[in-house]
Here is the input.
Amino acid sequence: MTNPSNSTYSFSPTGEKFQLPSPEDYSTELERLKDVINHQRSLGREIVVVMGLGFVGAVMAAVVADAEDGKGNPTKFVIGMQRPSTRSFWKIPLMNLGRPPVSSEDPEVAPMIDRCVNKKKTLTATFTYDALKFAEVVIVDIQCDYLKESLGDVRDGRAEMKALEESFEIIAQNISPQTLVLIETTVAPGTTEQIAYPIMKKVFKKRGLKVDPLLAHSFERVMPGKNYVASIRDFWRVCSGINEEATRRVVKFLKEVIHTDKFPLTVLDRPIESETAKIVENSFRATILAFMDEWSLFAEQNGVDLIKVINAIKVRPTHNNMIFPGPGIGGYCLPKDGGLGLWAYRHVHGFEDDIFKITPLAIDINDTRALHVAQLTRDALRNMGRPLASAEILVLGASYREDVGDTRYSGSELIVRRLTEMGAELRVHDPYVLHWWEFERQDDYPASSYSLKRFFRGQEKLKDLRVEQDLKKALHGADAAILAVRHKHYLNLDPDEVVQNAGGPIAVVDCFGILDDHKIRRYFELGCEVKGLGRGHVKRIKDQVHLKMQSVE
Ligand SMILES: NC(=O)c1ccc[n+]([C@@H]2O[C@H](COP(=O)([O-])OP(=O)(O)OC[C@H]3O[C@@H](n4cnc5c(N)ncnc54)[C@H](O)[C@@H]3O)[C@@H](O)[C@H]2O)c1
Here is the structure.
Protein backbone atom coordinates (compact mmCIF):
# COMPACT_ATOMS: atom_id res chain seq x y z
CA MET A 1 0.00 0.00 0.00
CA THR A 2 1.32 3.46 -0.80
CA ASN A 3 1.62 6.04 1.91
CA PRO A 4 1.18 9.42 0.26
CA SER A 5 2.97 12.32 1.94
CA ASN A 6 1.17 15.48 3.07
CA SER A 7 2.26 17.25 -0.10
CA THR A 8 -0.16 15.05 -2.02
CA TYR A 9 -3.03 16.22 0.14
CA SER A 10 -5.04 19.40 0.17
CA PHE A 11 -6.40 20.58 3.52
CA SER A 12 -9.60 22.58 3.89
CA PRO A 13 -9.49 25.51 6.34
CA THR A 14 -11.26 23.31 8.88
CA GLY A 15 -8.59 20.61 8.55
CA GLU A 16 -10.35 18.09 6.31
CA LYS A 17 -7.83 16.20 4.20
CA PHE A 18 -8.32 15.38 0.50
CA GLN A 19 -5.89 13.46 -1.69
CA LEU A 20 -4.78 15.29 -4.82
CA PRO A 21 -5.67 13.60 -8.13
CA SER A 22 -3.10 11.25 -9.66
CA PRO A 23 -2.38 11.25 -13.44
CA GLU A 24 -4.74 8.25 -13.83
CA ASP A 25 -7.58 10.17 -12.16
CA TYR A 26 -7.77 12.54 -15.12
CA SER A 27 -9.08 9.97 -17.57
CA THR A 28 -11.62 8.66 -15.04
CA GLU A 29 -12.75 12.23 -14.38
CA LEU A 30 -13.11 12.93 -18.10
CA GLU A 31 -15.31 9.85 -18.49
CA ARG A 32 -17.45 10.98 -15.53
CA LEU A 33 -17.88 14.43 -17.09
CA LYS A 34 -18.75 12.97 -20.52
CA ASP A 35 -21.49 10.82 -19.01
CA VAL A 36 -23.02 13.57 -16.97
CA ILE A 37 -22.80 16.11 -19.80
CA ASN A 38 -24.48 13.75 -22.30
CA HIS A 39 -27.31 13.31 -19.84
CA GLN A 40 -27.60 17.06 -19.15
CA ARG A 41 -27.56 17.88 -22.86
CA SER A 42 -30.40 15.40 -23.39
CA LEU A 43 -32.36 17.49 -20.88
CA GLY A 44 -31.71 20.56 -23.04
CA ARG A 45 -29.41 22.28 -20.55
CA GLU A 46 -26.62 24.62 -21.55
CA ILE A 47 -23.17 23.68 -20.21
CA VAL A 48 -21.47 26.45 -18.25
CA VAL A 49 -17.94 26.19 -16.81
CA VAL A 50 -17.02 28.55 -13.98
CA MET A 51 -13.23 28.86 -13.64
CA GLY A 52 -12.10 29.59 -10.09
CA LEU A 53 -14.18 28.43 -7.12
CA GLY A 54 -13.24 31.30 -4.83
CA PHE A 55 -15.43 33.75 -2.94
CA VAL A 56 -17.10 34.87 -6.16
CA GLY A 57 -16.92 31.83 -8.45
CA ALA A 58 -18.37 29.32 -5.97
CA VAL A 59 -21.53 31.33 -5.40
CA MET A 60 -21.82 32.50 -9.01
CA ALA A 61 -21.63 28.83 -10.08
CA ALA A 62 -24.54 28.02 -7.76
CA VAL A 63 -26.60 31.02 -8.93
CA VAL A 64 -26.23 29.85 -12.55
CA ALA A 65 -26.97 26.22 -11.62
CA ASP A 66 -30.10 27.34 -9.79
CA ALA A 67 -31.47 29.31 -12.77
CA GLU A 68 -34.80 28.07 -14.16
CA ASP A 69 -37.04 28.88 -17.10
CA GLY A 70 -40.59 30.21 -16.72
CA LYS A 71 -41.85 26.66 -16.09
CA GLY A 72 -39.43 25.97 -13.23
CA ASN A 73 -37.05 23.78 -15.26
CA PRO A 74 -33.30 24.23 -14.76
CA THR A 75 -31.72 25.72 -17.88
CA LYS A 76 -28.01 25.28 -17.15
CA PHE A 77 -25.61 22.60 -16.01
CA VAL A 78 -22.61 24.12 -14.26
CA ILE A 79 -19.14 22.69 -13.85
CA GLY A 80 -17.07 24.55 -11.30
CA MET A 81 -13.45 24.23 -12.36
CA GLN A 82 -10.62 24.70 -9.89
CA ARG A 83 -6.88 24.04 -10.13
CA PRO A 84 -5.87 20.95 -8.15
CA SER A 85 -3.21 22.77 -6.08
CA THR A 86 -2.54 21.75 -2.46
CA ARG A 87 -3.95 25.15 -1.50
CA SER A 88 -7.24 24.95 -3.37
CA PHE A 89 -8.03 21.38 -4.45
CA TRP A 90 -10.16 20.72 -1.33
CA LYS A 91 -12.82 23.08 -2.75
CA ILE A 92 -13.68 20.47 -5.42
CA PRO A 93 -14.53 17.43 -3.25
CA LEU A 94 -16.28 19.71 -0.77
CA MET A 95 -18.46 21.23 -3.46
CA ASN A 96 -19.23 17.77 -4.86
CA LEU A 97 -20.58 16.82 -1.44
CA GLY A 98 -22.92 19.80 -1.75
CA ARG A 99 -21.01 21.88 0.79
CA PRO A 100 -19.89 25.46 0.13
CA PRO A 101 -16.14 26.01 -0.22
CA VAL A 102 -16.57 29.52 1.19
CA SER A 103 -17.88 30.49 4.59
CA SER A 104 -20.71 32.97 4.55
CA GLU A 105 -23.20 34.62 6.88
CA ASP A 106 -25.83 34.31 4.13
CA PRO A 107 -28.23 31.47 5.05
CA GLU A 108 -28.99 31.03 1.32
CA VAL A 109 -25.46 29.90 0.30
CA ALA A 110 -25.26 26.42 1.84
CA PRO A 111 -28.81 25.23 0.93
CA MET A 112 -28.42 26.56 -2.60
CA ILE A 113 -25.20 24.61 -3.22
CA ASP A 114 -26.68 21.52 -1.59
CA ARG A 115 -29.88 21.86 -3.67
CA CYS A 116 -28.02 22.26 -6.97
CA VAL A 117 -25.52 19.44 -6.33
CA ASN A 118 -27.73 16.86 -4.64
CA LYS A 119 -31.32 17.54 -5.67
CA LYS A 120 -31.46 19.42 -8.97
CA LYS A 121 -28.13 17.84 -9.98
CA THR A 122 -27.21 20.94 -11.98
CA LEU A 123 -23.83 21.56 -10.37
CA THR A 124 -20.59 19.63 -10.15
CA ALA A 125 -16.96 20.55 -9.59
CA THR A 126 -13.85 19.30 -11.34
CA PHE A 127 -10.09 19.71 -11.52
CA THR A 128 -9.65 18.98 -15.19
CA TYR A 129 -9.39 21.64 -17.88
CA ASP A 130 -11.05 19.10 -20.20
CA ALA A 131 -14.34 20.45 -18.84
CA LEU A 132 -13.78 23.53 -21.01
CA LYS A 133 -14.19 21.42 -24.16
CA PHE A 134 -17.90 20.95 -23.42
CA ALA A 135 -18.75 24.53 -22.44
CA GLU A 136 -21.19 26.79 -24.22
CA VAL A 137 -20.26 29.50 -21.75
CA VAL A 138 -17.07 29.91 -19.66
CA ILE A 139 -17.12 32.33 -16.73
CA VAL A 140 -13.72 33.49 -15.50
CA ASP A 141 -13.74 34.13 -11.75
CA ILE A 142 -10.08 33.72 -10.96
CA GLN A 143 -8.16 36.31 -9.01
CA CYS A 144 -6.17 39.23 -10.38
CA ASP A 145 -4.28 40.56 -7.38
CA TYR A 146 -2.35 43.77 -6.99
CA LEU A 147 0.92 43.27 -5.12
CA LYS A 148 2.07 46.26 -3.07
CA GLU A 149 5.80 46.43 -2.38
CA SER A 150 5.53 49.12 0.33
CA LEU A 151 3.04 49.96 3.04
CA GLY A 152 1.14 53.13 2.14
CA ASP A 153 2.47 53.55 -1.41
CA VAL A 154 0.22 51.90 -3.98
CA ARG A 155 2.36 53.24 -6.83
CA ASP A 156 5.09 50.86 -5.67
CA GLY A 157 3.25 47.75 -6.85
CA ARG A 158 1.97 45.76 -9.79
CA ALA A 159 -0.95 43.73 -11.09
CA GLU A 160 -0.38 39.99 -10.76
CA MET A 161 -1.44 38.83 -14.21
CA LYS A 162 0.10 35.35 -14.31
CA ALA A 163 -2.90 33.23 -13.24
CA LEU A 164 -5.24 35.20 -15.46
CA GLU A 165 -2.98 35.14 -18.53
CA GLU A 166 -2.43 31.41 -18.12
CA SER A 167 -6.14 30.82 -17.88
CA PHE A 168 -6.86 32.73 -21.13
CA GLU A 169 -4.38 30.48 -22.90
CA ILE A 170 -5.85 27.32 -21.40
CA ILE A 171 -9.38 28.40 -22.26
CA ALA A 172 -8.43 29.13 -25.88
CA GLN A 173 -6.71 25.74 -26.18
CA ASN A 174 -9.82 23.90 -25.07
CA ILE A 175 -13.05 25.71 -25.95
CA SER A 176 -15.09 25.46 -29.07
CA PRO A 177 -14.95 28.65 -31.19
CA GLN A 178 -18.62 29.39 -30.43
CA THR A 179 -18.08 29.42 -26.65
CA LEU A 180 -18.82 32.70 -24.91
CA VAL A 181 -16.00 33.62 -22.50
CA LEU A 182 -17.32 35.95 -19.83
CA ILE A 183 -14.62 37.60 -17.70
CA GLU A 184 -16.02 38.57 -14.31
CA THR A 185 -12.68 39.12 -12.64
CA THR A 186 -11.95 42.72 -11.69
CA VAL A 187 -9.18 43.47 -14.16
CA ALA A 188 -6.90 46.30 -15.18
CA PRO A 189 -8.98 48.31 -17.71
CA GLY A 190 -8.02 47.12 -21.18
CA THR A 191 -7.43 43.49 -20.17
CA THR A 192 -10.25 41.93 -22.21
CA GLU A 193 -9.29 43.62 -25.47
CA GLN A 194 -5.53 44.01 -25.08
CA ILE A 195 -4.50 40.96 -23.06
CA ALA A 196 -7.19 38.26 -23.27
CA TYR A 197 -8.08 38.81 -26.93
CA PRO A 198 -4.52 38.63 -28.37
CA ILE A 199 -3.61 35.63 -26.20
CA MET A 200 -6.71 33.74 -27.27
CA LYS A 201 -6.55 34.83 -30.89
CA LYS A 202 -2.98 33.48 -31.21
CA VAL A 203 -4.02 30.12 -29.77
CA PHE A 204 -7.07 30.01 -32.06
CA LYS A 205 -4.75 30.67 -35.02
CA LYS A 206 -2.49 27.79 -34.00
CA ARG A 207 -5.58 25.59 -33.82
CA GLY A 208 -6.46 26.71 -37.35
CA LEU A 209 -9.53 28.62 -36.18
CA LYS A 210 -10.17 31.78 -38.17
CA VAL A 211 -12.91 33.27 -35.96
CA ASP A 212 -12.54 35.81 -33.16
CA PRO A 213 -12.94 34.51 -29.62
CA LEU A 214 -16.30 35.60 -28.20
CA LEU A 215 -15.12 37.60 -25.22
CA ALA A 216 -17.17 39.72 -22.85
CA HIS A 217 -16.71 41.45 -19.51
CA SER A 218 -19.20 41.89 -16.69
CA PHE A 219 -17.90 42.59 -13.20
CA GLU A 220 -19.21 41.25 -9.91
CA ARG A 221 -20.52 43.47 -7.14
CA VAL A 222 -20.48 40.71 -4.53
CA MET A 223 -20.92 41.83 -0.94
CA PRO A 224 -19.84 39.39 1.75
CA GLY A 225 -22.43 39.09 4.51
CA LYS A 226 -26.01 38.00 4.82
CA ASN A 227 -27.03 39.11 1.31
CA TYR A 228 -24.21 37.33 -0.50
CA VAL A 229 -26.38 35.48 -3.01
CA ALA A 230 -28.69 38.44 -3.61
CA SER A 231 -25.66 40.66 -4.31
CA ILE A 232 -24.95 38.39 -7.31
CA ARG A 233 -28.42 37.39 -8.48
CA ASP A 234 -30.59 40.35 -7.48
CA PHE A 235 -28.39 43.27 -8.33
CA TRP A 236 -27.61 45.59 -11.22
CA ARG A 237 -25.00 44.48 -13.72
CA VAL A 238 -22.86 46.21 -16.30
CA CYS A 239 -21.58 44.26 -19.30
CA SER A 240 -19.94 44.61 -22.68
CA GLY A 241 -18.80 42.29 -25.46
CA ILE A 242 -15.80 42.48 -27.73
CA ASN A 243 -18.05 42.48 -30.82
CA GLU A 244 -21.76 42.42 -31.65
CA GLU A 245 -22.12 38.66 -31.30
CA ALA A 246 -20.29 38.59 -27.94
CA THR A 247 -22.50 41.43 -26.69
CA ARG A 248 -25.66 39.65 -27.83
CA ARG A 249 -24.54 36.43 -26.12
CA VAL A 250 -23.53 38.03 -22.82
CA VAL A 251 -26.81 39.97 -22.59
CA LYS A 252 -28.80 36.79 -23.32
CA PHE A 253 -26.83 34.80 -20.74
CA LEU A 254 -27.08 37.36 -17.95
CA LYS A 255 -30.81 37.75 -18.58
CA GLU A 256 -31.20 34.00 -18.11
CA VAL A 257 -29.32 33.76 -14.80
CA ILE A 258 -29.75 37.12 -13.07
CA HIS A 259 -32.97 38.94 -12.21
CA THR A 260 -32.47 41.62 -14.84
CA ASP A 261 -36.22 42.29 -14.99
CA LYS A 262 -35.99 43.92 -11.56
CA PHE A 263 -32.34 44.99 -11.85
CA PRO A 264 -31.83 46.13 -15.42
CA LEU A 265 -28.58 45.52 -17.25
CA THR A 266 -26.38 48.37 -18.43
CA VAL A 267 -24.72 47.45 -21.72
CA LEU A 268 -21.63 49.49 -22.54
CA ASP A 269 -19.98 49.81 -25.95
CA ARG A 270 -16.63 48.23 -25.18
CA PRO A 271 -15.21 45.93 -22.49
CA ILE A 272 -12.73 48.63 -21.40
CA GLU A 273 -15.76 50.69 -20.35
CA SER A 274 -17.19 47.87 -18.26
CA GLU A 275 -13.73 47.26 -16.76
CA THR A 276 -13.29 50.96 -16.04
CA ALA A 277 -16.75 51.15 -14.45
CA LYS A 278 -15.67 48.63 -11.81
CA ILE A 279 -12.41 50.42 -11.06
CA VAL A 280 -14.02 53.88 -10.91
CA GLU A 281 -16.87 52.58 -8.76
CA ASN A 282 -14.46 51.24 -6.15
CA SER A 283 -12.01 54.15 -6.42
CA PHE A 284 -14.91 56.53 -5.76
CA ARG A 285 -15.81 54.65 -2.63
CA ALA A 286 -12.17 54.45 -1.48
CA THR A 287 -11.87 58.19 -2.02
CA ILE A 288 -14.94 59.29 -0.06
CA LEU A 289 -13.73 57.11 2.82
CA ALA A 290 -10.16 58.45 2.68
CA PHE A 291 -11.43 62.03 2.54
CA MET A 292 -12.65 61.74 6.13
CA ASP A 293 -9.22 60.80 7.50
CA GLU A 294 -7.90 64.37 7.67
CA TRP A 295 -11.16 65.62 9.18
CA SER A 296 -11.00 62.82 11.68
CA LEU A 297 -7.58 64.09 12.83
CA PHE A 298 -8.86 67.68 12.78
CA ALA A 299 -11.75 66.64 15.01
CA GLU A 300 -9.48 64.86 17.48
CA GLN A 301 -7.24 67.90 17.83
CA ASN A 302 -9.99 70.50 18.13
CA GLY A 303 -12.58 69.05 20.47
CA VAL A 304 -14.98 68.05 17.68
CA ASP A 305 -17.08 64.87 17.54
CA LEU A 306 -16.91 63.97 13.86
CA ILE A 307 -19.74 61.46 14.24
CA LYS A 308 -22.18 64.21 15.21
CA VAL A 309 -20.81 66.45 12.46
CA ILE A 310 -21.39 63.76 9.82
CA ASN A 311 -24.91 63.07 11.09
CA ALA A 312 -25.67 66.80 10.95
CA ILE A 313 -24.50 66.97 7.33
CA LYS A 314 -26.25 63.77 6.23
CA VAL A 315 -29.62 65.40 6.88
CA ARG A 316 -29.03 67.13 3.54
CA PRO A 317 -30.22 64.67 0.90
CA THR A 318 -27.35 65.58 -1.46
CA HIS A 319 -24.82 64.48 1.20
CA ASN A 320 -26.51 61.47 2.72
CA ASN A 321 -23.90 58.94 1.54
CA MET A 322 -21.16 60.38 3.74
CA ILE A 323 -19.48 57.60 5.71
CA PHE A 324 -17.19 57.44 8.71
CA PRO A 325 -14.25 55.23 7.74
CA GLY A 326 -13.36 53.35 10.94
CA PRO A 327 -9.82 52.01 11.31
CA GLY A 328 -8.94 51.62 7.64
CA ILE A 329 -10.70 50.24 4.62
CA GLY A 330 -10.36 46.54 4.09
CA GLY A 331 -12.02 43.90 2.01
CA TYR A 332 -10.49 42.41 -1.10
CA CYS A 333 -11.50 45.10 -3.58
CA LEU A 334 -11.16 48.67 -2.32
CA PRO A 335 -7.48 48.43 -1.35
CA LYS A 336 -6.44 47.10 -4.76
CA ASP A 337 -8.81 48.13 -7.53
CA GLY A 338 -7.53 51.70 -8.02
CA GLY A 339 -4.02 50.21 -8.26
CA LEU A 340 -5.15 48.12 -11.22
CA GLY A 341 -6.21 51.35 -12.96
CA LEU A 342 -2.86 53.08 -12.39
CA TRP A 343 -0.99 49.99 -13.51
CA ALA A 344 -3.06 49.66 -16.68
CA TYR A 345 -2.46 53.27 -17.71
CA ARG A 346 1.29 52.65 -17.85
CA HIS A 347 1.70 48.95 -18.50
CA VAL A 348 -1.26 48.13 -20.75
CA HIS A 349 -1.77 51.46 -22.50
CA GLY A 350 1.84 52.69 -22.46
CA PHE A 351 1.42 56.22 -21.06
CA GLU A 352 4.38 57.74 -19.24
CA ASP A 353 2.71 60.72 -17.58
CA ASP A 354 1.32 60.65 -14.09
CA ILE A 355 -2.34 61.63 -14.27
CA PHE A 356 -3.48 59.91 -11.08
CA LYS A 357 -3.44 61.97 -7.89
CA ILE A 358 -6.58 61.30 -5.88
CA THR A 359 -6.99 57.55 -6.41
CA PRO A 360 -3.51 56.50 -5.19
CA LEU A 361 -3.61 59.03 -2.35
CA ALA A 362 -6.95 57.65 -1.17
CA ILE A 363 -5.66 54.07 -1.17
CA ASP A 364 -2.48 55.08 0.65
CA ILE A 365 -4.48 56.93 3.32
CA ASN A 366 -6.86 54.00 3.76
CA ASP A 367 -3.99 51.49 3.91
CA THR A 368 -2.34 53.28 6.84
CA ARG A 369 -5.24 54.81 8.75
CA ALA A 370 -5.23 51.96 11.29
CA LEU A 371 -1.73 52.89 12.48
CA HIS A 372 -3.22 55.94 14.19
CA VAL A 373 -5.28 53.61 16.39
CA ALA A 374 -2.04 52.28 17.85
CA GLN A 375 -1.07 55.85 18.78
CA LEU A 376 -4.44 56.50 20.43
CA THR A 377 -4.08 53.26 22.41
CA ARG A 378 -0.55 54.19 23.45
CA ASP A 379 -1.75 57.64 24.61
CA ALA A 380 -4.79 56.31 26.46
CA LEU A 381 -2.62 53.81 28.36
CA ARG A 382 -0.02 56.49 29.08
CA ASN A 383 -2.75 58.67 30.62
CA MET A 384 -3.50 55.76 32.94
CA GLY A 385 0.17 55.37 33.83
CA ARG A 386 0.47 52.01 32.05
CA PRO A 387 3.31 51.45 29.58
CA LEU A 388 2.11 50.01 26.29
CA ALA A 389 4.99 47.55 26.14
CA SER A 390 3.69 45.62 29.13
CA ALA A 391 -0.01 45.99 28.36
CA GLU A 392 -2.57 43.33 27.45
CA ILE A 393 -4.66 44.75 24.65
CA LEU A 394 -7.95 43.32 23.41
CA VAL A 395 -9.07 44.04 19.87
CA LEU A 396 -12.83 43.70 19.48
CA GLY A 397 -13.48 42.67 15.89
CA ALA A 398 -11.13 41.12 13.32
CA SER A 399 -13.16 41.46 10.15
CA TYR A 400 -13.13 44.39 7.77
CA ARG A 401 -16.75 45.34 8.22
CA GLU A 402 -19.61 44.81 10.59
CA ASP A 403 -21.36 41.49 11.06
CA VAL A 404 -19.28 39.49 8.58
CA GLY A 405 -16.40 37.08 9.10
CA ASP A 406 -14.28 38.38 6.21
CA THR A 407 -10.87 39.47 7.54
CA ARG A 408 -9.19 40.39 4.27
CA TYR A 409 -7.06 43.51 4.69
CA SER A 410 -9.00 44.57 7.77
CA GLY A 411 -7.91 47.62 9.73
CA SER A 412 -7.78 45.36 12.79
CA GLU A 413 -4.90 43.39 11.27
CA LEU A 414 -2.77 46.51 11.06
CA ILE A 415 -3.72 47.52 14.61
CA VAL A 416 -2.57 44.13 15.89
CA ARG A 417 0.64 44.24 13.88
CA ARG A 418 1.64 47.75 14.91
CA LEU A 419 0.84 47.26 18.61
CA THR A 420 2.74 43.97 18.60
CA GLU A 421 5.71 45.71 17.03
CA MET A 422 5.48 48.27 19.86
CA GLY A 423 5.74 45.44 22.40
CA ALA A 424 2.16 44.96 23.58
CA GLU A 425 0.49 41.58 24.11
CA LEU A 426 -2.54 41.24 21.85
CA ARG A 427 -5.73 39.24 22.13
CA VAL A 428 -8.74 39.31 19.89
CA HIS A 429 -12.46 38.63 20.03
CA ASP A 430 -14.75 38.25 17.03
CA PRO A 431 -18.05 36.36 17.03
CA TYR A 432 -17.87 35.80 13.25
CA VAL A 433 -14.24 34.70 12.89
CA LEU A 434 -13.06 31.29 14.08
CA HIS A 435 -9.56 31.49 12.64
CA TRP A 436 -7.72 34.62 11.73
CA TRP A 437 -5.63 33.04 8.97
CA GLU A 438 -3.74 36.28 8.29
CA PHE A 439 -1.95 35.50 11.57
CA GLU A 440 -2.26 31.75 12.11
CA ARG A 441 -0.83 31.12 8.65
CA GLN A 442 1.03 34.37 8.18
CA ASP A 443 3.89 32.74 6.26
CA ASP A 444 1.70 31.65 3.38
CA TYR A 445 -1.65 33.48 3.69
CA PRO A 446 -3.00 35.09 1.55
CA ALA A 447 0.29 34.15 -0.22
CA SER A 448 3.90 34.14 0.91
CA SER A 449 4.67 37.52 -0.64
CA TYR A 450 1.39 39.14 0.42
CA SER A 451 1.30 38.94 4.22
CA LEU A 452 1.34 42.39 5.83
CA LYS A 453 3.75 40.79 8.28
CA ARG A 454 6.57 41.90 6.00
CA PHE A 455 6.07 45.56 6.92
CA PHE A 456 6.47 45.10 10.68
CA ARG A 457 9.08 43.71 13.07
CA GLY A 458 8.59 41.20 15.86
CA GLN A 459 5.63 39.43 14.26
CA GLU A 460 6.60 35.77 14.74
CA LYS A 461 4.56 35.20 17.91
CA LEU A 462 1.37 36.27 16.14
CA LYS A 463 1.16 32.79 14.63
CA ASP A 464 -0.20 31.79 18.01
CA LEU A 465 -2.92 34.45 18.06
CA ARG A 466 -6.30 32.74 18.46
CA VAL A 467 -9.71 34.36 18.18
CA GLU A 468 -11.59 34.22 21.48
CA GLN A 469 -15.34 33.66 21.15
CA ASP A 470 -16.21 34.37 24.78
CA LEU A 471 -16.27 38.12 25.38
CA LYS A 472 -16.06 37.86 29.17
CA LYS A 473 -12.98 35.69 28.93
CA ALA A 474 -11.43 37.99 26.36
CA LEU A 475 -11.90 41.01 28.62
CA HIS A 476 -10.54 39.37 31.74
CA GLY A 477 -7.32 41.11 32.80
CA ALA A 478 -7.16 43.39 29.73
CA ASP A 479 -5.54 46.82 30.09
CA ALA A 480 -7.19 48.18 26.96
CA ALA A 481 -10.08 47.32 24.66
CA ILE A 482 -10.20 48.58 21.11
CA LEU A 483 -13.67 48.72 19.54
CA ALA A 484 -12.46 48.06 16.00
CA VAL A 485 -15.58 46.84 14.16
CA ARG A 486 -19.26 47.77 14.42
CA HIS A 487 -20.40 44.19 15.08
CA LYS A 488 -23.87 44.25 16.66
CA HIS A 489 -22.41 42.52 19.73
CA TYR A 490 -20.35 45.62 20.56
CA LEU A 491 -22.93 48.36 20.03
CA ASN A 492 -24.61 48.07 23.41
CA LEU A 493 -21.81 46.96 25.72
CA ASP A 494 -22.45 48.25 29.21
CA PRO A 495 -19.43 50.15 30.64
CA ASP A 496 -20.04 48.79 34.14
CA GLU A 497 -20.01 45.21 32.87
CA VAL A 498 -16.94 45.80 30.71
CA VAL A 499 -14.99 47.16 33.68
CA GLN A 500 -16.25 44.37 35.91
CA ASN A 501 -15.23 41.70 33.39
CA ALA A 502 -11.85 43.31 32.85
CA GLY A 503 -11.27 43.36 36.60
CA GLY A 504 -10.79 47.13 36.83
CA PRO A 505 -10.58 50.35 34.81
CA ILE A 506 -9.23 50.02 31.30
CA ALA A 507 -8.39 52.17 28.28
CA VAL A 508 -11.21 52.11 25.72
CA VAL A 509 -10.47 53.10 22.13
CA ASP A 510 -13.50 53.65 19.89
CA CYS A 511 -12.61 53.36 16.20
CA PHE A 512 -16.13 53.49 14.78
CA GLY A 513 -18.25 55.99 16.68
CA ILE A 514 -19.73 53.16 18.73
CA LEU A 515 -19.84 54.94 22.10
CA ASP A 516 -22.45 57.58 22.79
CA ASP A 517 -21.68 60.44 25.18
CA HIS A 518 -23.48 58.76 28.03
CA LYS A 519 -21.25 55.68 27.77
CA ILE A 520 -18.10 57.75 27.35
CA ARG A 521 -19.01 59.66 30.52
CA ARG A 522 -19.66 56.43 32.39
CA TYR A 523 -16.27 54.99 31.41
CA PHE A 524 -14.58 58.10 32.80
CA GLU A 525 -16.63 57.88 36.01
CA LEU A 526 -15.40 54.30 36.37
CA GLY A 527 -11.77 55.45 36.15
CA CYS A 528 -11.23 54.42 32.55
CA GLU A 529 -9.57 56.40 29.80
CA VAL A 530 -11.39 56.85 26.47
CA LYS A 531 -10.11 57.85 23.08
CA GLY A 532 -11.64 57.53 19.64
CA LEU A 533 -10.98 58.13 15.97
CA GLY A 534 -12.53 61.50 15.12
CA ARG A 535 -13.83 61.97 18.64
CA GLY A 536 -12.15 65.11 19.94
CA HIS A 537 -15.01 65.85 22.32
CA VAL A 538 -14.09 63.02 24.74
CA LYS A 539 -11.59 65.34 26.44
CA ARG A 540 -14.47 67.74 27.18
CA ILE A 541 -16.48 64.91 28.77
CA LYS A 542 -13.41 63.80 30.73
CA ASP A 543 -12.90 67.33 32.12
CA GLN A 544 -16.58 67.57 33.08
CA VAL A 545 -16.44 64.23 34.93
CA HIS A 546 -13.24 65.15 36.77
CA LEU A 547 -14.62 68.58 37.71
CA LYS A 548 -17.75 66.95 39.09
CA MET A 549 -15.69 64.43 41.07
CA GLN A 550 -13.54 67.19 42.53
CA SER A 551 -16.59 69.21 43.58
CA VAL A 552 -18.02 66.13 45.32
CA GLU A 553 -14.74 65.59 47.18
N1 LIG B 1 -14.51 38.67 -2.99
C1 LIG B 1 -15.22 39.76 -3.19
O1 LIG B 1 -15.81 40.27 -2.25
C2 LIG B 1 -15.31 40.36 -4.59
C3 LIG B 1 -16.30 41.29 -4.88
C4 LIG B 1 -16.39 41.81 -6.18
C5 LIG B 1 -15.48 41.41 -7.14
N2 LIG B 1 -14.51 40.51 -6.82
C6 LIG B 1 -13.58 40.10 -7.88
O2 LIG B 1 -13.84 38.78 -8.30
C7 LIG B 1 -12.62 38.15 -8.70
C8 LIG B 1 -12.45 36.82 -7.99
O3 LIG B 1 -12.35 37.09 -6.60
P1 LIG B 1 -12.45 35.98 -5.49
O4 LIG B 1 -12.61 36.71 -4.20
O5 LIG B 1 -13.45 34.96 -5.87
O6 LIG B 1 -10.97 35.33 -5.58
P2 LIG B 1 -10.43 33.99 -4.89
O7 LIG B 1 -8.96 34.14 -4.76
O8 LIG B 1 -11.26 33.66 -3.69
O9 LIG B 1 -10.76 32.86 -5.96
C9 LIG B 1 -10.07 32.67 -7.14
C10 LIG B 1 -10.03 31.17 -7.40
O10 LIG B 1 -9.53 30.94 -8.72
C11 LIG B 1 -8.70 29.78 -8.69
N3 LIG B 1 -7.85 29.76 -9.88
C12 LIG B 1 -6.74 30.49 -10.14
N4 LIG B 1 -6.25 30.18 -11.35
C13 LIG B 1 -7.05 29.21 -11.88
C14 LIG B 1 -7.07 28.48 -13.08
N5 LIG B 1 -6.14 28.65 -14.02
N6 LIG B 1 -8.05 27.57 -13.27
C15 LIG B 1 -9.01 27.38 -12.34
N7 LIG B 1 -9.04 28.03 -11.17
C16 LIG B 1 -8.08 28.95 -10.93
C17 LIG B 1 -7.98 29.93 -7.37
O11 LIG B 1 -7.41 28.72 -6.94
C18 LIG B 1 -9.12 30.42 -6.46
O12 LIG B 1 -9.85 29.35 -5.90
C19 LIG B 1 -11.51 39.14 -8.39
O13 LIG B 1 -11.19 39.85 -9.54
C20 LIG B 1 -12.14 40.07 -7.40
O14 LIG B 1 -11.55 41.36 -7.43
C21 LIG B 1 -14.42 39.96 -5.57
Summary: The mean pLDDT is 96. The first helix runs from residue 23 to 42. The pocket of nicotinamide-adenine-dinucleotide is lined by residues 51-57, 81-83, 88, 141-144, 163, 166-167, 185-186, 220, 222, 224, 332-333 (CB under 6 Å). The two ends are 82 Å apart (CA to CA).
